[in-house]
């Protein structure tokens, strides 16, 4: 548990037996309903396959971290770059690779630009770069599903009595007037490190225009890596293929 001015942050780390001391760790950022536990076996598998330490943490208000002190602000994506500084200090992280899923991918972009002194590489998976009707419709559909008590019980399994806050923060923030014209473009233009953009062919929350925007404004392949027959959560739907897409990128300029 990391102490921060706003409350405790829960973090976990996976150290493979074959880890190479010269390789920087991979830091994972979860999605809008996620937490460390919902990465499931992916961090351990990624650590073993890449030979790198993997670190993940629950954002404030999520999982085992402290409750968020009030409503989630519209600036929450950019704000995470400041929280990340506390994580770097706690673990003594000088150089790192940052990988974010969904809104965690948007946060990873902010982190890559604002922590350019240490960010060796950026990976976005199913990330959002702007607000689009498909994203909003997907969130509304999920909101309807969470009206079923069993669905909220599953959310509470991971977030405890913070579950309602987690759901409302996701739904209400994305549908707020302040978020209507939100775009990640300024943050994307600050990214200077190699970038890999990954997207599921059947992503329910974002069209292919999302990863194409990210890829076009960051250093790296001009086209996103699209995972066939995969939706919004590749680390659960097709973890083997996701790791296979990551390994050549991680073995490139970021290997030292």
UniProtKB/TrEMBL annotation:
One of its GO terms (molecular function) is hydrolase activity. The keyword Translocase does not apply. InterPro entries: AB_hydrolase_1 (IPR000073), AB_hydrolase_fold (IPR029058). The keyword Hydrolase applies. Keywords: Hydrolase. Residues 25-235 form the AB hydrolase-1 domain. This is Alpha/beta hydrolase. It comes from Halomonas gemina.
């Amino acid at each position: 548990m990391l102490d921060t001015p706003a409350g405790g942050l829960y973090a976990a780390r996976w150290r493979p037996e074959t880890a190479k001391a010269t390789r920087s760790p991979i830091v994972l950022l979860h999605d809008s309903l996620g937490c460390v536990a919902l990465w499931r076996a992916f961090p351990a598998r990624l650590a073993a396959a890449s030979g790198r330490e993997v670190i993940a943490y629950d954002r404030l208000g999520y999982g085992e971290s402290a409750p968020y002190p009030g409503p989630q602000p519209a600036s929450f994506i950019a704000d995470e770059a400041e929280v990340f500084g506390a994580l770097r200090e706690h673990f003594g992280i000088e150089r790192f690779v940052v990988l974010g899923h969904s809104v965690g991918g948007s946060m990873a972009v902010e982190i890559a630009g604002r922590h350019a002194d240490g960010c060796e590489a950026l990976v976005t998976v199913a990330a959002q770069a702007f607000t689009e009707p498909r994203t909003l419709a997907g969130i509304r559909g999920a909101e309807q599903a969470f009206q079923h008590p069993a669905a909220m019980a599953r959310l509470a399994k991971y977030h405890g009595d913070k579950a309602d806050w987690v759901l409302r923060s996701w739904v209400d923030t994305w549908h707020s007037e302040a978020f209507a014209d939100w775009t990640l473009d300024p943050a994307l233009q600050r990214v200077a490190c190699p970038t890999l953009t990954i997207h599921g062919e059947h992503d329910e929350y974002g069209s292919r225009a999302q990863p194409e925007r990210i890829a076009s404004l960051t250093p790296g392949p001009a086209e996103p890596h699209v995972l066939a027959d995969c939706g919004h959560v590749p680390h659960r739907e097709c973890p083997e293929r996701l790791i296979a897409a990551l390994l050549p990128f991680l073995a490139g300029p970021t290997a030292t």
